[in-house]
Amino acid sequence: MGRTGIGAVARNAEGKLMKAWARAEQKTSEPQVEEAAAIQMGMQMAQEANWKAVEFQSDCKAVVDMINKENEQDTRVDTILEDIANMRCLFEKCTFSFVHRAGNSCAHSLAICGKAN
């Protein structure tokens, strides 16, 4: 079993930090599965916060491409991707984009901290 850290940051349209969270789990999943699960969890949190327009950014291009259907589906993450697709209708606007890790350093730092604790 390996330790996996997940970090997420929520900002408003002006870039102001609204929420941040991290979580660690004992898992042996592949990184794409973990990234898709993190996005799914972020969608649940955004829906619970009653946010209407959201953009989910990830440094895992393969997962973003699968969500945006620009890449073939990976059977290891199919169920999570289906859940993400179904949850899109919970928001008035919902987009997914790829961001290099350097552009997402706050979330990456949270994931590292979560993994270490």
UniProtKB/TrEMBL annotation:
Family matches, as InterPro entries: RNase_H-like (IPR053151), RNase_H-like_dom_plant (IPR044730), RNaseH-like_sf (IPR012337), RNaseH_domain (IPR002156), RNaseH_sf (IPR036397)
The RNase H type-1 domain, residue ranges: 2-111
SUPFAM superfamilies noted in UniProt: Ribonuclease H-like
One term of GO molecular function: RNA-DNA hybrid ribonuclease activity
Gene3D superfamilies linked to this entry: Ribonuclease H-like superfamily/Ribonuclease H (3.30.420.10)
Domain of life (superkingdom): Eukaryota
PANTHER family named in the record: OS05G0353850 PROTEIN (PTHR47723), POLYNUCLEOTIDYL TRANSFERASE, RIBONUCLEASE H-LIKE SUPERFAMILY PROTEIN (PTHR47723:SF21)
This protein's name: RNase H type-1 domain-containing protein
Organism, as annotated: Coffea arabica
Species lineage: Eukaryota, Viridiplantae, Streptophyta, Embryophyta, Tracheophyta
Encoding gene, per UniProt annotation: LOC113743958
